[in-house]
């Protein structure tokens, strides 16, 4: 149990540190709206998002979005600590979700916006601009879903064996 909690805390802290370090680099080295093409379909594009995903709820204001973020962090933490410590994918996923949410919350509290910079695009299509914290949240959710799939498969196998 102790090892699982230490891994959880390490993952949250590492996610926040990596996220904030990259955002700091972007803000100090790239003027707002500047773009650095990395490969033909991937660029760094310094933007500021006052909402949440896809600028949704940007009219709500940073304080209320901060309150929502804190509520989500608390909810996910409760789920994480109710999860069996042996469910490493789910626990890691919850830690990544919390780390990403804290990273974006820090931005929102300090600047009133979230720094976004990852930009996937082609000449005819472009994806939303996001950041490492958003990627942590997405990967974390994927790990939680994967763990649930594994638990479901184990349950099915156990039911077949008992029939």
Automatic annotation (TrEMBL):
A GO term, aspect molecular function: aspartic-type endopeptidase activity
Pathway participation: Protein modification; lipoprotein biosynthesis (signal peptide cleavage)
UniProt catalytic activity: Release of signal peptides from bacterial membrane prolipoproteins. Hydrolyzes -Xaa-Yaa-Zaa-|-(S,diacylglyceryl)Cys-, in which Xaa is hydrophobic (preferably Leu), and Yaa (Ala or Ser) and Zaa (Gly or Ala) have small, neutral side chains
Chain segments annotated as transmembrane: 6-26, 63-81, 88-106, 126-146
Documented EC number(s): 3.4.23.36
Predominant place of localization: membrane
Family: Belongs to the peptidase A8 family.
Function: This protein specifically catalyzes the removal of signal peptides from prolipoproteins.
Protein name as annotated: Lipoprotein signal peptidase
Organism: Chelativorans composti
Name of the gene encoding the protein in the UniProt record: lspA
């Amino acid at each position: 149990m102790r090892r699982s909690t230490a891994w959880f805390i390490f993952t949250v802290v590492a996610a926040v540190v990596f996220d904030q370090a990259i955002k700091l680099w972007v803000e100090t080295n790239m003027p707002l709206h500047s773009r650095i093409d990395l490969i033909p379909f991937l660029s760094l594009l310094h933007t500021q998002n006052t909402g949440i995903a896809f600028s949704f709820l940007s009219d709500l204001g940073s304080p209320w979005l901060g309150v929502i973020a804190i509520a989500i962090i608390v909810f996910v933490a409760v789920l994480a600590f109710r999860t069996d410590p042996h469910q490493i994918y789910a626990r890691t996923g919850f830690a990544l979700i919390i780390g990403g949410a804290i990273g974006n919350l820090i931005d929102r509290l300090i600047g009133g916006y979230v720094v976004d910079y990852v930009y996937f695009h082609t000449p005819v299509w472009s994806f939303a601009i996001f950041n490492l914290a958003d990627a942590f949240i997405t990967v974390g959710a994927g790990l939680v879903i994967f763990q649930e799939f594994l638990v479901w498969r184990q349950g099915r196998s156990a039911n077949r064996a008992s029939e």
